[in-house]
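MODEL INPUT / OUTPUT PAIR
PAIR INDEX: 1
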Amino acid sequence: MAEPGGGRPVTVSDVQQLVRRKDEIEAQIKACYELLERQKGVGMHEPLVDAEGFPRADIDLYQVRTARHNIICLQNDHKALMKQVEEALHKLHAREKEKHAKDEAEALAEAMSQNQSLPQAFAKVNAVTPGSPASVSGLQVDDEIVEFGSVNVNNFQNLQNIATVVQHSEGRPLSVTVIRGGRRVHVGLTPKRWAGKGLLGCNIIPLQR
């Protein structure tokens, strides 16, 4: 299929237009068959002459011949159009796939360039309870923690460091920085009493480096 607009990429709108044309042709074919049906049920192949070889007088020969001719032409158009629809869909899917691959490559390149300048994490979130202060703040499983209030990779010794910061910050927002999907993300986390255990509602484990 020659791409519409002289080499312009195929769009969803182009495919929809082709499908509309296909529907129109199908409606025209149906109308022609209905016309043949009204002519004593003459189809595409019944003879148009009587037993003696004379043109049949019980049907409108001109209408029948015209309808038969139109059906043949329309069916050819329909076949060609279906091929165009198939090719257009193929091009559309190929372009979407190409775009997706390009987006993924760009995201990977960005993540790699960010990784080179990302700070080192010292702990990781391996569980977050729904409805907890951690969940409400937007903390997620697999977030790698690079800063938890005043705790960072330089002064972190064990999980007690985090527990101490949490206890001293009850009811006050803590600044938490994590690495998520290769990006640095800042989270405002307020330790507080809630329906579950502890003040956070998440589980943090040290990272083995």
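PAIR INDEX: 2
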Amino acid sequence: QMPGTARHDREMAIQAKRNLSKTTDPVERLRLKCLARGSAGIKGLGKAFQIMDDDNSRTLDFKEFVKGLNDYAMMIDKEEAQEIFRIFDKDGSGTIDFDEFLVTLRPPMSNARKEIIMQAFRKLDKTGDGVITIEDLRGLYNAKHHPKYQNGDWTEDQVFRAFLDNFDSPYDKDGKVTTEEFMNYYAGVSASIDTDVYFIIMMKNAWKL
């Protein structure tokens, strides 16, 4: 059975909503607003920015930034948006790099947590090329237990692809999951889990490490 994190997701969303009332840091507030939508919340904001980024420059000016926030239904007043933008526009160029933005928005994690996430990644990356693909999963999981496979809706590859899509960046679902994408996903889950010990136990159980 492939690991599900729906319960952690719910816990994280509830906790993020609770913490929102306690913080005045604009970046932390934006992070919590994303996490209140679940561990893919930060990824979802990335997708909204991707759509804004017409010229594929992977940078956003202030107007695009605000439009992306609005399209993602993030209720943020102009002053707060300006403050966040200034924090990310380190060189004062009037644009922000949105990969850097998403990495900074990602909740910080201890080394112990990063290490166990990497252990899971290495286990999944059977071919050891630094990317998890359908090929890797074929050697690890039996798709035949999946309900959608059993009722004939999905092929084995579609089961694996849906699994990979959980971790994949929303703006380039290419059926390949990089270390960065895997880390981003688990940073979201990690935000709802208070202690390293519990996070590590959860990961060990989920991935049989």
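PAIR 2 NOTE: The first strand starts at residue 59 and ends at 61.
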